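Try this one yourself first.
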């Protein structure tokens, strides 16, 4: 009778339309094991673009073996980073942890894993709070980088002891997640885009499928300026296109990252709303290449930020966010992505930017189209 009752319950659950959550993939954020192994082999053989792009990453200060973390218990970031009490150090160390973890994965040299662990542990045992008017944005910018570093180290080495890993989990639960869990939907969309990426990564690292799935759902249907269909209109015009081009590319960069994170878990956010993220990149690339685009003055989701004309501020200054999107839409899907390709012809190899995951030419260009296991629709 117990077996029959169990069968009936399972049948009713499935019949009601609930899906049994597949186990989360590890490492399964921005970088899969198969991709990292492929890049490692190319570097070892001295092949291009991989070799020169890797040298570019290694020349960055965050990649140096003498990098010293600067943890602080109570970090404060105000509007436009004023005041900046430990916020810059938090950002730099999250970048350094991720880059050092990548160096470990791509060289196999223990010193890089140990440095990544040193940085992770320094903040894990020190950070107690992030506050200030921009606290949620800072948590979004830095959280997913720390998580990517930790994900690589945990799942490609045995050097990080379990006690420290558990303490890192505790920092995510007590410092980061409380800041990002409710998002800030009324802010310009780059805020929530960064927080979605971080929430997804926290969920993956903690093996919390509900947390991860909630962030994916919010990216699609959240009542937020940062949700995909609210940040990018059907023409490709972005919520911040009339503000300036720096913030527009900031938001697009985080949307690209969160789409790739979802892809690694078998969820296709790239395809959502008729490839809306591709439209946003093509529209923004075209305008920043000096061509004209159609622009409609449209207020954001909350009736604010109505810009009468598209902004020329920052026009032509390209951020390192284009490789990841070109790889997916062109290499995986076979779409043309004309203007994105023209941008890449100008800026390759992509380098470092404090706001972004960076070094896309190394990490996301010329990759084979690995067959990712997709979830059932």
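Now uncover the answer:
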């Amino acid at each position: 009778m117990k077996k029959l009752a169990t069968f009936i319950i399972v049948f009713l659950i499935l019949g009601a339309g609930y899906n049994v959550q597949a186990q989360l993939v590890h490492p399964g954020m921005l970088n899969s094991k198969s991709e990292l192994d492929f890049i490692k082999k190319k570097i070892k053989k001295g092949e291009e673009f991989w070799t020169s792009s890797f040298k570019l990453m290694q020349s960055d200060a965050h990649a140096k073996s003498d990098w010293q973390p600067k943890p602080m218990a109570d970090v404060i970031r105000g509007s436009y980073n004023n005041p900046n009490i430990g916020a810059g150090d938090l950002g730099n160390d999250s970048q350094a942890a991720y880059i050092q973890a990548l160096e470990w994965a791509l060289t196999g040299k223990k010193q890089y894993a140990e440095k990544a662990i040193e940085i992770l542990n320094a903040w894990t045992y020190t950070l107690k709070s992030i506050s200030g008017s921009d606290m949620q944005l800072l948590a979004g910018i830095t959280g997913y980088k720390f998580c990517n570093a930790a994900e690589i180290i945990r799942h490609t080495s045995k050097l990080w002891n379990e006690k420290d890993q558990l303490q890192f989990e505790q920092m995510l639960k007590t410092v980061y997640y409380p800041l990002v869990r409710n998002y800030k939907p009324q802010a310009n969309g780059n805020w929530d885009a960064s927080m979605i990426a971080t929430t997804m990564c926290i969920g993956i690292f903690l093996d919390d499928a509900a947390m991860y799935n909630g962030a994916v759902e919010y990216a699609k249907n959240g009542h937020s300026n940062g949700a995909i269909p609210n940040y990018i209109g059907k023409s490709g015009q972005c919520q911040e296109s009339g503000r300036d081009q720096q913030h527009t590319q900031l938001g697009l960069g985080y949307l690209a990252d969160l789409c790739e994170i979802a892809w690694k878990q078998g969820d296709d956010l790239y395809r959502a709303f008729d490839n809306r993220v591709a439209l946003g990149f093509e529209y923004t690339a075209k305008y920043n290449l000096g061509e004209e685009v159609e622009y409609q003055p449209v207020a954001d989701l909350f009736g604010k930020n109505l810009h009468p004309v598209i902004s020329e501020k920052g026009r032509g200054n390209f951020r390192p966010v284009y490789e990841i999107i070109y790889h997916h839409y062109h290499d995986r899907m076979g779409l043309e992505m004309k203007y994105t390709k023209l941008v890449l012809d100008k800026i390759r190899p992509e380098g470092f930017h404090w706001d972004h995951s960076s070094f896309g030419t190394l990490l996301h260009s010329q990759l084979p189209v690995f067959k990712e296991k997709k979830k059932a629709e």
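Discussion: The CA atoms of residues 9 and 15 lie 10 Å apart. The beta strands are 74-77, 84-85, 129-131.
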